[in-house]
Design a protein that fits this description.
Blueprint: H1 6-13, H2 19-40, H3 47-56, E1 62-64, H4 69-79, E2 87-89, H5 104-113, E3 121-124, H6 127-135, E4 139-143, E5 157-159, H7 162-170
Parallel strand pairs: 1-2, 3-4, 4-5
Helix pairs in contact: 1-2, 3-7
Length: 172
């Protein structure tokens, strides 16, 4: 379910949900998310150091998420990491039917950053992230913390620690 639009997630639970009810559920969810989840969001230990090391090495970074771009921006500002990430795109940055695992978010990020697929790594914690990266022609690296903690076959490789991720990304 991670990465799907909210209405699609609600319809998995309630298949007969009307468009009007799905919109009402989405609006209520977003209100709760805005008030409680965004302010409570914290980085994993090691994330800030990794983002800053990658940024200091001159590598371009993008965050692509199923969340709305405005929510992503607010989260990054609140975590004080927005200056370490060159681009952030939300699920609303692409057509509604082109959400994860479609490659559109990654393709858009590569286009805006001017980086070809062969020089792009998609780092994520879900099968959906790995499918999206592969569909965009990028190399995929699954981190074994976060949503899925066991390796998924869609990943080109996996890493179990922030040190391993930094080494993988920063070592030519």
């Amino acid at each position: 379910m991670t990465g799907l639009p909210l209405e699609a997630i609600f319809r998995l639970a309630w298949p007969d949900l009307s468009d009007e009810d799905a919109a009402a559920c989405r609006n209520e969810y977003r209100g709760i998310y805005e008030e409680t989840v965004i302010p409570a969001t914290r980085l994993f230990a090691g994330a800030r150091e990794t983002l800053r090391a990658v940024h200091a090495a001159g590598l371009l970074q993008a965050t692509v998420t199923g969340k709305r771009a405005v929510d992503c921006e607010r989260i990054l500002r609140g975590l004080e990491i927005e200056d370490d990430i060159e681009l952030y795109l939300g699920g609303d940055s692409v057509a509604p039917h082109r959400h994860k695992p479609a490659p559109d978010l990654v393709v858009l990020a590569m286009d805006r950053l001017g980086v070809p697929p062969g020089r792009t790594a998609v780092v994520g914690d879900t099968r959906t992230d790995m499918r999206m990266g592969r569909a965009a022609g990028a190399h995929t690296i699954q981190v074994l913390w976060g949503y899925e903690r066991a390796a998924v076959p869609e990943a080109d490789e996996t890493v179990a620690t922030w040190d391993a991720l930094r080494a993988r990304i920063l070592t030519p």
